[in-house]
User: Fold DUF1853 family protein from Zhongshania aquimaris.
Amino acid sequence: MIVEKNKTGPAIWLNAHAFAEHVLCGGRALPWANNTEFAEVYKKLQGILEADRISVPLMGFLDSWIDRHPHVLQTMTGKSRVRFAIKRFLTNQDLRADMLEWMTVCCAMVDSEVVLEIPSNAALISWAHARANPAAEIESLSDLDIDSTSVYLADTVRQLKPSGIAGIVSTLSESDLNAGASVELYKPLANVAENYHWQFAFRKPLVGAKFDSQQYYCLGDDAGSDNTDLVSLSAEFWQESSGKAAALDSKWAYAELPGFVEPEVVRTKIAALRQQ
Assistant:
C-alpha cells in the first residue's frame, strides 16, 4: 500500500526512533517490553511528524525479548556453526507470536504506514551467536550465511501478514558487503514483500562499499538504486541553518531524523517539503 497524502510534494518516509527516544522518552530507551506503551510513543511521534511512512526498528524488540526470555538461549547454543543461533531464535514460535502482537498494536495505533526495519543479516548472526555463546569468537561470514539468514527472516516476517505493516527494510552493513551481499541473497525477503504487496527496500547507512540494489530503493545511498522515485535527505537537512531544500522531483523523500534536533525545526522542515 502506498500512501497518497501529499498532492504538492514528495511523500515523507522517516526513520525517527533516535528522535523518539530523545524527545518523547526523556533520553531513555523505547518501551520495548510493553506493546501499548511502545505504540503510544509512535502515535505521539506521528503527531509531531505527520509522516506518510515510519520505519520501526526490529533490533530493539529482539534484544528486549531475549532479555525477558533468557531460557531461549539454551536452545540456541551447542553448535559451532555461526548461523545456528539465529536460526533457532528466529524460528521460535513464542517470539513470532509476540512480534506479531507488537506490530499489530503499533500498526493499529499509528496513523501512517509502518515499515519494519530489519537489522543487517551479519549483525543478527553475530548478535545471536554471541548471546548464545558468550565466550565464542565470531568467525568470518560467507554469502551462504547471509543467504540462509534471509531465508530464516523471510519465514519470520511472513507471520506478520495480519499485522497491517506496509513493508520491510533490510539493512546492509560493512560485514554483509564483505561477505558478498547482493540482491540475490535477499530475494527470500523481497519475494515475501512482493507476495503481500509490501514495500521492500534496502538501507545502507554510512557504508563506503558500493551495493547495486537494482530496482529496489537503497535508503541512504540513492546512487546504488536504479529506482529514482526516492531521494534520501542528509542529516544536515535538519539543521536550522541549512536553508531551504532543493526541489525534489521524486515520489518519496526519506530521512533518518537525528535525535537532538528540535521538534519545531522538524515541523518547519517537513512543511517546506510538503510545499514543494
User: Anything to note?
Assistant: The longest strand covers residues 113-118. The chain is about 40% helix and 15% strand.
